[in-house]
Amino acid sequence: MSVMQEISEALQKGKANEVKELVQGELDGGASAKDVLEGGLMPGMDVVGRLFKANEIYVPEVLIAARAMTAGVELLKPLLVSEDVKPRGTIVIGTVKGDLHDIGKNLVKMMMEGKGFKIVDLGTDVTADRFVAAATENKADIIACSALLTTTMTEMKNVVAVAESAGIRDTVKIMVGGAPLTQQYCDSIGADAYSADAASAAEKAVEFVES
Ligand code: B1M
């Protein structure tokens, strides 16, 4: 079994210490953070998602696996974040109201930090009002909203509406993403961009501030 497979399996079993050791070993051996993320951690979480959907595992197991993923991702973070100093722009990011999933949001945040943005992370369960207030207060260039539930993604429409009524819609781009999101949904609510993954979200953010 390859080390990447071992990382994936340790994550699935929720063995955070083992994930950390294996990830560190791969990094010490010269693997890139991106390789470890895409070759070990994310495939492991995909399996967890499939088992969860099939009711073969339940919320506690998923939580333990999520903690193991976070433990691995923490080791990658300094490598994913570039040492660039001058912020490229400011992004307010969060997971929308009612939604507590933050692993994907944190990856997006890391990738955006890696592109040199200053990030204001509002965490999870963020209302449209909070997104807009933080964007106004921090003179943000972008609001980035994540959602993992079909029942919570609808809050993104409110973010667009509140930004409009607060008078900041012309100066702030609104980006959306998360597993249930689509380009079509993004267009239907009048947001500016949908990205399917963290890396393309960070690239899109760069396009917005450089255009
Ligand atoms: Co939940 N959960 N969960 N969960 N969970 C899903 C999302 C689900 C698809 C599982 C399933 O049924 N197969 C399902 C949603 C179904 C639906 O709405 N259609 C689900 C459910 C139902 C629930 C609960 C309701 C379960 C319950 O209590 N009965 C509950 C809801 C709690 C709440 O939020 N109010 C719940 C709870 C949980 C845990 C707490 C146990 C845990 C979250 C822990 C945490 O985040 N700290 C959890 C987890 C871990 C998952 C799965 C297994 C994994 C999610 C994940 O982290 N993926 C998930 C199944 C799955 O997705 N396979 C599932 C890895 C992550 C890297 O991917 O977040 O998609 P993702 O992010 C990607 C892209 O989407 C994108 O970039 C990332 C990577 O490149 N992206 C963006 C994300 N945000 C972006 C923003 C952007 C651009 C791109 O621009 C701004």
Ligands, deduplicated: CO-5-methoxybenzimidazolylcobamide
The domain count comes to 2
User: Share of helix among residues?
Assistant: 55-70%
Number of H- or I-type helical stretches: 9
CATH topology of the largest domain: Rossmann fold
The count of β-strands is: 5
**Top-tier CATH class of the largest domain:** Alpha Beta
- Strand arrangement in the largest pleated sheet: 2-1-3-4-5
Order of helices and strands: HHHHEHEHEHEHEH
Question: Main sheet, how many strands, which sense, barrel?
Answer: 5 strands, parallel
Question: What is the element layout, followed by pairings?
Answer:
Elements: H1 3-12, H2 16-28, H3 33-53, H4 59-80, E1 90-95, H5 103-114, E2 118-121, H6 128-137, E3 142-146, H7 155-165, E4 173-177, H8 183-189, E5 193-194, H9 198-210
Parallel strand pairs: 1-2, 1-3, 3-4, 4-5
Helix pairs in contact: 1-2, 1-3, 2-4, 3-4, 4-5, 5-9, 6-7
Bound molecules: CO-5-methoxybenzimidazolylcobamide.
CO-5-methoxybenzimidazolylcobamide is lined by residues 45, 48-49, 52-53, 59, 62-63, 66, 98-105, 107-108, 144-146, 148-150, 175-180, 195, 197-198, 201.
Note down, in words, how this protein is organized.
The protein is an alpha/beta fold. The protein folds into two domains: 3-82, Orthogonal Bundle (Methyltransferase, Methionine Synthase (B12-binding Domains), Chain A, domain 1), CATH 1.10.1240.10; 90-210, Rossmann fold (3-Layer(aba) Sandwich). The chain contains nine helices and five strands. The protein has helices at residues 3-12, 16-28, 33-53, 59-80, 103-114, 128-137, 155-165, 183-189, 198-210; strands spanning 90-95, 118-121, 142-146, 173-177, 193-194. A five-stranded parallel β-sheet has the order 2-1-3-4-5, sandwiched between helices. Helix 5 (103-114) crosses helix 9. It starts with a helix and ends with a helix. Bound molecules: CO-5-methoxybenzimidazolylcobamide. The site of CO-5-methoxybenzimidazolylcobamide (B1M) has 35 residues, from helix 3, helix 4, helix 5, strand 3 and strand 4.
